[in-house]
């Protein structure tokens, strides 16, 4: 890797920015993507002490789980922790990149790590992402159809769950007549052409659209490529927030909470009243997850493990499940290790360093 921009392409493969929630601030927050990369420091929060660590370790790219800049900002004067971190990074030519909900929504991201740490099996997304599937329809002659299909598949179109190279193909009659500026591949300018075409239909995740359209145009033989793009109402069940899975063996509620506390390295767990049921089905959502209490109940979870629950939200358990707040940092604890491991596999022989700074702002007696 020679530039930060090349590293960003790897990060966006790990956690596509299109996976992020609309409210979020993901991607490159500050920095020059064309600068030569000297090293990567991976952290949970890009605070001032982390920027100091990056300077010491000669890393000019900080990859953070949380975005240091989240809300709008009008001045950078160093009066609070956000401004101090940004000033320090700017003064030292350090870029900051955040993944946050782009990795929250990823099927191998934050919540899969959470599930694997607890040993959950038969996992699936708790809240599948909406409005993320699109359909492309295009037309070409028979001799060009296989080339176009394969190019679309190679670009990522036609994947449905555990199946790929999915398409629907039908034949019909085409007509067209080019004007004096046209250069038709088939037929002559100014003459009505008629023949048989193959209609190709494929679905795809919307973040792949530019790549798919590029592949289509590069492999289609027509001067003008006819395309139709539709937004699908189908949910994308393979990406989204939270996960639900099962323990290999049922556990008592108190035993499960102690087990989760130990596995996630928590200092304590706040929880609702015990229901008296065994824990078998477990829902998790790393970070603030009070909005998904109803989803966990509807999914039949025996316990919902998340963070940042407020006083009155514990009543929402309604004795239907056990609500447990493990702590925000703790619920995302192993995310930065995942990022480091991913980058080291994709970018060998490059300085990729796990931050040694503990940025958890919550302390315990």
Summary keywords:
alpha/beta, 11 helices, 365 residues
What does this structure look like?
With 365 residues, this protein is an alpha/beta fold. The protein has eleven helices and 15 strands. It has helices spanning 4-14, 48-56, 81-91, 101-104, 110-118, 142-154, 209-219, 253-263, 293-298, 328-331, 335-346, and strands spanning 27-30, 40-43, 61-64, 95-98, 121-129, 133-140, 168-176, 193-205, 227-231, 236-251, 270-271, 279-288, 303-307, 322-325, 352-354. Strand 3 (61-64), helix 3 and strand 4 (95-98) form a beta-alpha-beta unit. The longest helix is centred in the middle third of the chain and has 13 residues, at 142-154. The radius of gyration is 25 Å and the shape is globular. A divalent metal cation binds at residues 66, 104, 328, 332. Homohexamer. One of its GO terms (cellular component) is cytoplasm.
Kindly provide the radius of gyration, computed on alpha-carbon positions and rounded to a whole number of angstroms. 25 Å
Q: Count every helix, treating DSSP H or I runs of 4 or more residues as helices.
A: 11
The major beta sheet can be summarized as: 6 strands, mixed
Average of pLDDT = 95
What letter string, H or E per element, gives the SSE order?
Answer: HEEHEHEHHEEHEEHEEHEEHEEHHE
Q: Beta fraction of the residues?
A: 25-35%
Structural class: alpha/beta
Intertermini distance: 45 Å
Low-confidence stretches: none
**Helix share, percent:** 25-40%
Overall form? globular
Strand order of the largest sheet: 5-10-12-13-14-11
| DSSP strand tally | 15
